[in-house]
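Here comes my example:
=====
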Amino acid sequence: MKRIVVLGGGESGAGAAVLAHKKEFDVFLSDSSAIKPRYKEWLNKYGIRFEEGKHTEELILNADEVIKSPGIPDNAPLVVKIREKGIPVISEIEFAGRYTNAYTVCITGSNGKTTTTSLIYHMMQKAGLNVGLAGNIGNSFAYQVAECSYDYYVIELSSFQLDGIYNFKPDIAILLNITPDHLDRYDYKMQNYVESKFRITKNLSEDDCFIFCSDDSVTVEQLKRIVLRAQQLPFSQREKENQTAWLEDLDMFINYNNSDFSMSINDLSLKGKHNVYNSMAAGIAGHVLNIRKDVIRESLSDFQGVEHRLERVLTVRGVTYINDSKATNVNSAWYALESMTTPVVWIAGGVDKGNDYSELMELVKTKVKALICLGTDNSKLHAAFDGVVPVVVDALSAEEAVQQAYKLSAPGDTVLLSPACASFDLFDNYEDRGRKFKQAVRAL
């Protein structure tokens, strides 16, 4: 019997273990940290053997194949040992893809992927399709393949998940943009990260569709280098020629198979330039899926948005508080600041992933009246913005940051949590950071 070892007992790992068990493999799961009760329940329900708080090498290095959770880096000593023994290491997405014939719509990009994934899922549900939501959002893809019978999946893919893909193939692949992110995982080399994102196109055939932003210079540059067999469906806010979706004044047009679809960007539920891109990508996907135009239009106009992504929390004493905790890189924070129309008290900081703040400089100069650095080490933020922003202060908790913001803001201002950094110096994850921020705002 083939032995499968799963490294990591979170959503993706526990889900992969359940699917492997159902496919009658000899399964063992190992996590160096504590496993959450919810995932232990899954493992115990199926009698899957597991360990937590350690990795026992003799129980791992005898695997025929290892499924690695995306959070574990490739250069982790144990992963290096596994590879040296010639044991294949794959992702949960690769593993689950072997056991489903469902139609898959896969979305990647440095920014906007959760919003676009959620928007397409919303559209497909509205169209009455039997669809699951998976990957970096929603439930484990493998767990759903094991337990549900969906005809379609909408899957958000991070670069870490794509790194473990070899034969998996989307039917529709969407690449929104590529800007520097997670460079700490890619030897601080942008090209390594770019190639990781482009793995989404690796196995596409002539029958598949590749939807991409032709305004993104990094994407276009990389496209020149590779041979892509799939149908290419570009979208742009700058060009009209040869685009599948484009802008004319305030109208968004989509032309797929002579569909002739248009709607005003004022009718899109998601505001801001970056969300026009997200809506274009979703609209093209809807056309490829043969969803009716009225359903596409309705979905783009009534979608509620994603928690922790430019989420309006409350207006207190004339000041609007916005939770954009999901902005874990500089480019996300750029989009957030770009969409602000009032003076901003900006809360930023956390674990820096090799950030270059210079691209924010012009926006910060014109829009930010005060900066609150929320992190254990704010030296890079201070180096970039001391003397640029009139007031720069530090905070060590969401509550302290909100109290400071309350003092520094005036009616008509916006307090924006858009950290441009990862969260794990002071919080469990970006969701924890966002929830604590909202809690602190509600307590004002």
